[in-house]
Amino acid sequence: MKKAFITGITGQDGAYLAKLLLEKGYEVHGGVRRISQPETTRLNSLGIAGDIQLHDFDLLEQNSMFRVIRDVEMDEFYNLAAQSFVGASWELPVYTADADGMAVVRILDTLRTLRPDCRFYQASTSEMFGLVQEVPQTETTRLYPRSPYGAAKVYGHYITMNYRESFGLHASSGILFNHESPLRGKEFVTRKITMGLAALARGGNTPIELGNMDARRDWGFAGDYVDGMWRMLQQDVADDYVLATGVTTTIREFFTYAGEALGMDLDWSGEGENETATDRKTGKLVMKVNPKFYRPAEVDLLIGNPQKAVAKLGWKATVDIRGLASMMATSDFDALS
Ligand code: NDP
Ligand code: GDR
């Protein structure tokens, strides 16, 4: 039986990946950081909390990496833990650099010393592309991060490549474009929209306040993307791969699709700071822009080319943007019944 260790197992991707690996017959271990109350909501909602062995682990604590890597004897190590909210990275730039950048080399160097045959996955991100250099973006597109988060992830990406080339570690980076699900964190824009719309559809009256409505993202379903992570580690040779749908959508369009899934007919008016949306059927104001949600620097357009992953890994995205918006809105609506 293969053993896998997942950092960030309590997060969106960690939970879906743990479920996938359990279904494949793996013994699954995960790292959890010390907080006042253990947070296993996502693992519980997938019905797998009891099937996983949890270990104390913190991205900032070298000793926790040493102990885990020495004791668990894993075959595969998935590094999914991170300060993952781009918006917060301007408020926590040093912490983000440490957790999302330096921690990667802490793990890699411990693996190199204790378990050089263990396969390693690094959660790289389309946020590294930042300011548009090329459309669509591929594994070779020039990186130009636009946030402290993106800059920290660039270090994690390059140090993974460097340990592969320097020491022959089987270390791969997945450059993943945005992927969402009913388990998505509540501060990310898709979930903020679907939770807000579900509350409005259940009779609430609080409009959703958002920032930049014109940003474009290439959004897929998280369940598909964790399958791609696993496929990367099954290859004979480690490499870097983009996972994306190849379709880009504005925040406004995602909002419209989620609203339609809940039976709304949206009327958009104004622009910039004055933009609003009203449901024609009820006359309710459902969205207004609040400039406090604008970012100091924005990533305007993300659209990925997943051809390498399709050709070499046999991977593909199975949920389109309307299906994703509907899945999330319906789940949040049902949760309020
Ligand atoms: P989440 O925010 O849902 O999960 C992050 C996880 O990291 C949580 O389990 C969290 O633990 C853990 N964590 C945070 N800080 C620490 C720390 N100091 N020590 C140990 N664990 C910590 O993120 P996702 O699941 O969405 O993303 C997974 C990874 O993929 C992240 O690295 C993210 O940056 C990257 N990524 C995500 C994309 C996406 O669209 N989802 C796209 C591309 C990359 P806790 O539960 O205690 O908070
Ligand atoms: P992102 O996701 O920054 O792409 O990072 P997020 O959902 O936070 O933002 C997407 C876009 O929506 C715009 N936006 C808002 N965003 C939030 N969160 N809240 C708002 O009110 C709002 N209004 C507009 C943002 O400006 C942005 O353009 C996610 C994370 O999962 C990262 O960890 C991951 O690396 C990248 O995706 C790929």
TrEMBL record:
NCBIfam families according to UniProt: gmd (TIGR01472)
Domain NAD(P)-binding: 5-328
Protein name per Swiss-Prot or TrEMBL: GDP-mannose 4,6-dehydratase
Highest taxon of source: Bacteria
Signal sequence interval, chain numbering: none
SUPFAM superfamilies with a match to the protein in the record: NAD(P)-binding Rossmann-fold domains (SSF51735)
Family, per entry: Belongs to the NAD(P)-dependent epimerase/dehydratase family. GDP-mannose 4,6-dehydratase subfamily.
UniProt entry tagged with the keyword Lipid biosynthesis: no
UniProt xrefs under PANTHER family: GDP-MANNOSE 4,6 DEHYDRATASE (PTHR43715:SF1), GDP-MANNOSE 4,6-DEHYDRATASE (PTHR43715)
Entry keyword set: Lyase, NADP, Nodulation
GO biological process: 'de novo' GDP-L-fucose biosynthetic process
Database matches in InterPro entries: GDP_Man_deHydtase, NAD(P)-bd_dom, NAD(P)-bd_dom_sf
GO molecular function: GDP-mannose 4,6-dehydratase activity; NADP+ binding
Catalytic activity line of the entry: GDP-alpha-D-mannose = GDP-4-dehydro-alpha-D-rhamnose + H2O
The encoding gene: gmd
Cofactor(s) demanded: NADP(+)
Record's function text: Catalyzes the conversion of GDP-D-mannose to GDP-4-dehydro-6-deoxy-D-mannose.
Top-rank EC class of the record's enzyme: lyase
EC number annotated for this UniProt entry: 4.2.1.47
HAMAP family: GDP_Man_dehydratase (MF_00955)
